[in-house]
Every structure is written in C-alpha cells, then in structure tokens.
Amino acid sequence: MSAASTAFNVNRVKRQLEVWLGKENVSDAEVDKINYSRDAWPLRLLRLGRLIIEAKPDLIVWPQTVEQIQRIVKLANQESIPIIPVSGAGGVAGGILATTGGIIVDVKKMNRVLFLDEESFTVTVEPGILGYELEEYLEARGYTTGHLPSSIYSSALGGFAAARSAGVLSSKYGKIEDMITGLEVVLPTGELLRTKAVPRSSMGPDLKQLFIGSEGTYGIITELTLRIAPSPEETQFASFLFPDLHSGMNAVKQVFRQDLKPALIRLYDENETRFVLSRFKPPSDGACVLNFIYRATKDFVRLEKRTVTKICLEGGAEDLGPGPSKHWWNNRFDLYYPSSMNMGPGMLYDVLDVASSYANLEKMYWEMRKAIEAFGVGTMSHFSHFYPDGGNIYVIFVGHANSPEEVETKYQQIWDAGLEAAHRAGGTLSHQHGVGLLKAPWMPIEHGETGFALLQAIKQYLDPNNIMNPGKLGFGNETSKFPKEGASQ
Ligand SMILES: Cc1cc2nc3c(=O)[nH]c(=O)nc-3n(C[C@H](O)[C@H](O)[C@H](O)COP(=O)(O)OP(=O)(O)OC[C@H]3O[C@@H](n4cnc5c(N)ncnc54)[C@H](O)[C@@H]3O)c2cc1C
Q1: Which residue among 11, 120, 179, 292 has the highest number of C-beta atoms inside a 10 angstrom radius?
Q2: In this predicted model, what pLDDT tens digit does every residue of 183-226 receive, in sequence order?
Q3: Which of 316, 338, 439, 463 lies closest to 41, judged by CA?
Q4: What is d(CA 45, CA 341) in angstroms, rounded to the nearest whole number?
Q5: How much is the pTM?
Q6: Residue ranges of the chain assigned to CATH 3.30.43.10
Q7: Is 89 close to ligand 1, i.e. is its CB under 6 Å away?
C-alpha cells in the first residue's frame, strides 16, 4: 500500500480550507507545525529536548462540525493528502506524528456533550471533549463514566476510543471499549458511518469495535455514546503488604473468585514498593504492596472491604490501613502535571504496557524484567488493571547512555527485548497505550500473518489512497520509518 502523496499545493488547499472553516481555524504557522510535531511519546520528547524538529505537518485545522470534517476528508482523498486526526495529543506512541506531512485535523473544538440520556444511563459526546471536562459535567449531575486515566486532563474521548485507553478504575468500570455503545465515524472517502447506540446486538460483527483502536487509520471518530454509572455513594481505601509478588497475585485472584470487583486493584513489584512506601515504612526484601479502592454503595463497600481484608490477611499480608492507597489517589497526577519526565541529557526512560491471562502473568513479568535489565537499566513495575481472567503489567525502565545516539539505540533495544519477552510469554504487546509508530513493526507478530493481512485488507478497502494516518499500526510502506535523526520535514 503506497503512502498518500505529500506533494500538494499547500497554499491552494489552505485557501480552500479557510473558506470552509474560517481563517482562525486553519494554520500553517511554524509554531503550530512544531507544536503538532510531537505527542507524549518519550522518544520524540527526548529528541525535541535536543531541538530536533521533525515530522511536521503542512497544515493544522480545527473543524467545528462533522460536515466540515467530511469536506476536508473528501478533498484530501481526491488529492491524496495525508490526514492525521488529533484529539488531545496525549498519546505516548507517536500516533499523531505527520511522518509524511499532510493535514492535522484536531477535533478539540468539537467538545460538546450532545445528549445525556438519564433513562438509558448513556451520554453522547463529541470527540474533542477532554476526559476531565466530561467527568465534571457528569459529576455535577450525579454520574461518572468511570473512565479516569492519568491523562484525563490532557486526552480526549476521541483519542481514548481510537487508542483503546484504560482508566485507573478499569477493574470495576472496564476499559473504554467496554463503555462505548455507539459511534459516528467519517470514513476516508468522506462518507459518514453511524452505528446504532444499543446495549448489545447479534446482528453480525460489531462494526464499532473495528474503529475502536484503529488510531485514525480507518476514519475519524466524530461522535461517541458511552455508558455511565452513578457517582459512588462511598469511597474507601485499603493497602496490604505481602511478603512477595506471588502471594499478592494470589490474593487478587481470590478477590475475583469471590465475585468482587473493587474499583482499583494495584499491585506493585518489590522495586516500586520501596518507592511507594518511602514515606510510610521500609519494606522487607521482596515485599509487595497491594492497594485497593472500593467505590459503591455504603453497604457494598462494607461487604467488599470485609471480604478483601479477610482474603489478604489469610494470604499472609500485613494490613497497612488506608494510607498508601489514599496517598496514591490524592497525588496521582503529581508526576505528570507539570511533566517531570524530561530527565536531562543521557537519560532514557519509557513504559511497556502489556497484558496476559493469569496463567502467564507472573512468568511474563520475570522474563520481561530479565530481558530489560540486561541492558543495565533499572525497572520498577506495577499491575494496575486486573480482570477476572488476568491483568496488565506496567514496566517502567530508567537508565543512562553516553551519547544521544546510544540513548536511541539502547531505547530501541530495550523495547525490542521487552516486547519479545512478552510475546514469548503469551501476552498482548499493548494493554492501553496503543501502537502508533512505536509498536507498528510488532503488529504482524501480535496478530499473526493472517490476522494482520485481514486488517490490512480492511484498510485497503476503506482507504485505497492511504490518506488516513499513514504508517500508523504498521499500515503502509513506512511501517517502521520514524524519521532519521535531524531529517526535518
Ligand atoms: C500523563 C499521561 C498519562 C497517561 N495515562 C494513561 C492512562 O492512565 N491510561 C491510558 O490508557 N493511557 C494513558 N496515557 C496515554 C493517552 O492518554 C492515551 O493513549 C489516550 O488514549 C490518547 O488520547 P488523546 O486524546 O491524547 O489522543 P491523541 O494523542 O490525540 O491520538 C492518539 C491516536 O488516536 C488517533 N485519534 C485521535 N483522535 C481521533 C479521532 N477523533 N478519530 C480517530 N482517530 C483519532 C490519533 O491519530 C492517534 O493515532 C497517558 C498519557 C499521558 C501523557
């Protein structure tokens, strides 16, 4: 599949877009192009920190209606101009990088709540509404989506859906793909596709799930209907210290076997436990903290707390009270806003977010640690999204290299070794952060040759000119082509 052409007459297209959208909603200013040349992908931020400017779009537009998006996409399709949808620009895998130039379609001005259906317990929104804006709207009316990722202040509903995001309370409320009941999408031809917003259906395959996780490669999401839940009557916190990871993991499985679903279940490995408990008490070697948050009616919280406490104590844990869990909840955004991730020259860091069934989860953790730490970097990990059948691992690595070139080489080697280990252990290579450019070369490995060929065939059918977010998800011929250093576009 060849990439859309970047050789288009920018001035002519800009003038046309200005007529449709208004001058204030179209930009080719250098400052905007630089601003949109990155998301929150650490590798891109590391390069930006060295003033390497690359992957610049030719134009940025801020449409306000679905009709405007249809016009933009039709024009782009006619002229083979790459289109890159953006919602919050808070993705961490390079999903919005314009590696072949083109037009950034930022939907942030489409941020309205369209309809709150209090009878059906759903809300219909535009894709540019930020996570916290929607939560504030719902909270004022006694509801929540339950989708509370750490990026709630920087990411929007369109991006959550496009990258299959997970909120920190996913054990109770599910991931974004569990919440969405209906979607509207502008296809690469400019046609509009609407799926019915219904609780369940058996009328063939679920079309909306094709677009959830498609990261802008199959179309632009312009409207979403989501399930909502009542605001919790009661919220309580609990923390336990287990002698080792294995006993903590066993307790988590027991909680699900009792048919309970605490809103948050978060198990830290020994390295992160030392960090988490630094203000509380020094843990013994190998000890692991397990945090819970209960959010439900008062009666249900009482029951959940009593049963979970019994399980943990019988599993050999020490009850630490609510302290560490509550402290994490109250301070969970401190690391990110303002970002403290720019660590200076020579430092490298990132996070691998994988998942598997319980049968493989612990093995996967140990194998990934071994593979990553072989490069002389430190790791600390937590398991922050648990389900009845398994969970995720969030492996953070931090290290140092002697030159910028070595940072990049080592960064890539660590990712390759970590994902290889996760794949060998039977896990999925991303639980919540998506693919973007970072994991694009891994798509055929994740889905198998036949599975990936099917996804490519769907792409070819929907987008024969390959205009929609070229190169992402491994579609197109620039699969692993993150621009070479200094090759600004
Ligand atoms: C500080 C911080 C904390 C984070 N914490 C979490 C977390 O707790 N859980 C989690 O899951 N993720 C987390 N992330 C990652 C990020 O929030 C998610 O990947 C999120 O889904 C991205 O949403 P966005 O609006 O920022 O998307 P963007 O970065 O704008 O886009 C992401 C991808 O989706 C595509 N896209 C965007 N909008 C549309 C649309 N309307 N239609 C079609 N495609 C579109 C883009 O082209 C791109 O490929 C975190 C990121 C940061 C920076």
Answers
A1: 292
A2: 999 999 999 999 999 999 999 999 999 999 999 999 999 999 99
A3: 439
A4: 9
A5: 0.95
A6: 10-108+449-474
A7: yes
